[in-house]
Amino acid sequence: MPEPRYQNQSAERSFAILECVGAAENPVPLAVVARETGLNRATVFRMLAVLTRMGWIYKNQADSTYALGHKAFVLGRRKNQLETVIHHARPFVRLLAGDLGETVHLAALEGRQMVYCDKTEPPEGHPVSTAIGMRFDAHATGVGKAVLAWLEADEMRQIYCQHPPHAHTARTITNVDALLRELSAIRVQGYAVDEGELIPGLTCVAAPIMNSIGRAIVALSVSGPASRFDPARVTLLAGRLTATAAEISDYIVDHDSRSDSS
Question: Which domain holds residue 60?
Answer without folding.
Answer: 9-68
